[in-house]
Design brief:
Blueprint: E1 2-6, H1 14-26, E2 29-34, H2 39-42, H3 52-63, E3 67-71, H4 79-84, H5 111-128, E4 134-138, H6 154-168, H7 171-178, H8 205-233, E5 238-240, E6 242-243, H9 252-256, E7 263-266, H10 268-274, H11 288-291, H12 294-308, E8 312-318, H13 335-345, E9 348-354, H14 379-393, E10 404-408, H15 410-418, H16 427-440, E11 445-449, E12 459-462, H17 470-481, E13 485-489, H18 511-514, E14 516-523, E15 531-534, E16 537-550, E17 554-559, E18 568-575, E19 578-583, E20 585-587, H19 589-602, E21 615-620, E22 623-628, E23 634-637, E24 642-645, E25 649-650, E26 654-659, E27 666-669
Parallel strand pairs: 1-2, 1-9, 2-3, 3-4, 4-5, 6-7, 7-8, 8-9, 10-11, 10-12, 12-13, 13-19
Antiparallel strand pairs: 14-16, 15-16, 15-17, 16-20, 17-18, 18-19, 21-22, 22-26, 23-25, 23-27, 24-26
Helix pairs in contact: 5-8, 6-8, 8-15, 13-14, 16-19
């Protein structure tokens, strides 16, 4: 567990560099990321390469005992390249090209841009091959940021047609798979298929789904170009990419197949404001704008740990204010250190701060850093140094692994988001409903793809697994029959892999194993009464409701409101040595907790006491972090373990580390704190 920082030597005079690097080393920094936006400094004119300034910065990093992480600079093609090849620019659905003057204005499918990317990467990698100060590389920067995964230019149209030919072989097969008999949408050849531009009504949902798959695959191919070139130059380097939080358009599992591990950029107060399932400031959520929502950040840590299959990195960790999104409250004292430890507890081996020094020009002048724009230490520098020293006091630890998995399926998310049926139906928020409930009980949860080995887990939750092919259904049913606890939720197994309703009612190929089918559904506007009984208690739910028709399954929950009053809402069925449970509502916190506790008990897993709000226990290789995002103190009982960092009274915005398992630790609000 180590710390790093993002540095932009091209923004500062050379005479400043050595003092900056020396201070980084003094703060315990181990890794320095550089060069992701510097193509114009590397190649100020076509074919004229200037790498010596970067080599000088890399050498300084190495001389001070740190490691450099370099980046391919392709997120910001220079003006001369855009002028020479204007067709490399992305286009919006209405045909408007993205102009020079920002970043991420290139198209992933532009043959010219792929050629030019290959050229600069080859030259750059060749210059630094064998340099012992360079530990590894980040490809590009934040693929898809600013809504740029999906492009609508002529190059993408041509590439989309090729992708469809390779997927369907014949246009008749495409017409059949999509169901193009609807609204006279059948094609006579692949050359007639365009990328989905503006239309008077909704797009065909399967056309949209395949376009979204194609766009994600285009990024995968482009990333592979980078990774292959870097490894050809020096196979000692690691290769990673910095993903983003709650990010929909890009399948991170697919991209990471060509990486050594995943990284992501963690900005807790930004992501808390963006997430639809965190309270607005006027609804007692203002406090979160200074501390972040631990489960919004935590679920993304768990996702990228699952994407990596083990340890991951934070390539950019929030170090101060974040420019207005829409607000920019300064984080409370202690939060930089607390976010650093939270990431490490979830499996981050390196937490790298953005950035070393606040920039004096350009679009990010109001983005916080470890140092202010005059070079003086800002509030986060001391906390970063403290975290680095505390990491040194702890042993080397393997990444966490849980006994519970939540399945993440990008295809299902893309399909659901094309037909939300309710403004607040958000895939990430629905996953987080169950993630929050597990975390409130101190349970470690892995977020994994549908290709994971389910047998590694005592319980598997498949939230809104909307598209289920027969082979996946067989694997899930076999998992339950073999003794696993499988939990399905609303809108699961409703459609096949082509985004089409099946001949049988949901959950389609899982209905027999469940012993029930979904008879009806509705989306629910705020203000409607939404109540359901479960195991003798009455609870609230939200957004979506289904009622089921049991056929051998046991009804364990019923609706108590609306058109579904009295109808089955939750069904459980024994299957072999395990169970399948279907939850036909989107539960509020109380119901989610009851469902999760029952699932843990059936899986014979520890059930901890429900934790105080915004206090979390995270176990990593026998050590448990107690992270307190509250403003007030909590007290802990370490059980059979001992406190190895911090105290048994944990102040607000602070933490403790216990050498012992999470399920033995008791936490209470410290009224005297």
């Amino acid at each position: 567990m180590q710390t790093g920082v993002c540095y932009f030597p091209e923004h500062w005079p050379r005479e400043r560099w050595e003092a900056d690097v020396e201070r980084m080393a003094e703060a315990g920094i181990e890794y320095v990321r550089m060069s992701e936006f510097a193509w114009n400094r590397m190649e100020p004119e076509p074919g004229e390469y200037e790498f010596e300034w970067l080599a000088e910065a890399v050498d300084l990093v190495g001389e001070h005992g740190m490691n450099a992480v370099l980046c391919t600079p392709t997120a910001t093609p220079p003006k001369w390249l855009v002028d020479e090849y204007p067709g490399i620019r992305q286009e919006r659905p209405d045909g408007t090209p993205l102009e020079f003057g920002s970043r991420r204005h290139y198209c992933f499918n532009s043959p010219e841009y792929r050629r030019e990317s290959r050229r600069i990467i080859e030259r750059l990698a060749d210059r630094f091959a064998g340099n012992e100060a360079v530990a590894g590389w980040q490809t590009d920067n934040e693929f898809g940021c600013h809504d740029t995964v999906r492009c609508y230019c002529d190059d993408c149209t041509s590439a989309f047609r090729t992708w469809l030919r390779e997927t369907y072989d014949s246009v008749d097969a495409l017409n059949d798979a999509w169901g193009n008999a609807f609204w006279s949408q059948e094609y006579t050849g692949f050359a007639e298929v365009d990328v989905p531009g503006p239309t008077p009504a909704e797009h065909h949902p399967t056309r949209l789904l395949d376009y979204h798959r194609f766009a994600s695959d285009s990024v995968v191919e482009y990333n592979r170009l980078h990774a292959d070139l870097l490894r050809e130059a020096d196979d000692e380097w690691f290769v990673t990419h910095n993903f983003m939080g709650d990010f929909e358009p890009l399948d991170a599992f697919d991209v990471t197949e060509d990486l050594d591990f995943a990284a992501w950029d963690s900005y807790p107060t930004l992501h808390t404001q963006q997430a639809p399932d965190t309270p607005a400031p006027e609804d007692a959520g203002a406090d979160l704008h200074r501390a972040g929502d631990p489960d919004v950040t935590g679920m993304n840590h768990a996702l990228y740990r699952g994407v990596s299959g083990g340890p991951f990195w934070i390539m950019e960790n929030q170090a101060g204010d974040i420019r207005a999104f829409p607000y920019s409250a300064e984080p409370d004292d202690g939060m930089i250190r607390l976010w650093t430890h939270q990431a490490a507890a979830h499996g981050a081996d390196v937490v790298s701060y953005f950035r070393w020094r606040r920039c004096q020009f350009g679009q990010e002048q109001y983005w916080g850093a470890l140092n202010n724009y005059d070079g003086s230490p800002d509030r986060g520098l001391e906390e970063a140094a403290d975290a680095a020293a505390e990491f040194d006091s702890l042993p080397d630890l393997d990444a966490p692994s849980g006994d519970v998995a939540i399945l993440v399926d990008y295809d299902s998310m893309w399909a659901l988001h094309s037909e939300r049926h309710a403004p607040d139906f958000d895939y990430w928020s629905h996953l987080r409903t169950y993630y929050r409930a597990f975390r409130r009980r101190g349970t470690t949860v892995d977020l994994v793809s549908t290709s994971a080995d389910f047998d590694e887990y005592a319980a598997v939750v498949a939230p809104s697994l909307h598209l289920v092919a027969d082979d996946l259904a067989d694997r899930l049913a076999a998992y339950a029959e073999g003794g696993g606890e499988l939990l399905l939720t609303v809108r699961s197994a409703t459609k096949d892999e082509n985004h089409r309703l099946r001949d049988e009612l949901a959950p389609g190929p899982l209905a027999d194993a469940l012993g029930a089918r979904v008879e009806q559904h509705e989306s629910l506007s705020p203000g409607l009464e939404t109540r359901v009984s479960y195991e003798g208690e009455t609870y609230d739910y939200r957004t979506w409701a289904e009622w089921l028709r049991p056929d051998g399954g046991t009804v364990v929950g019923r609706h108590e409101s609306g058109a579904a009053d009295g109808e089955p809402a939750i069904v459980r069925n024994a299957s072999g040595d395990g169970h399948l449970t279907y939850v036909g509502v989107w539960p509020e916190d109380g119901l989610a907790d009851a469902i999760v506790v029952a699932l843990l008990e059936r899986a014979a897993l520890p059930v901890g006491e429900r934790l105080p709000d915004r206090v979390r226990l995270t176990e990593r290789d026998g050590h448990t972090w107690v992270t307190n995002f509250r403003a007030d103190a909590v007290s802990i009982d370490p059980g059979s373990g001992s406190v190895v960092l911090g105290d048994e009274s944990v102040p607000g915005r602070d933490l403790a580390v216990v050498d012992g398992p999470a399920h033995e630790i008791g936490v209470g609000v410290d009224v005297d704190g």
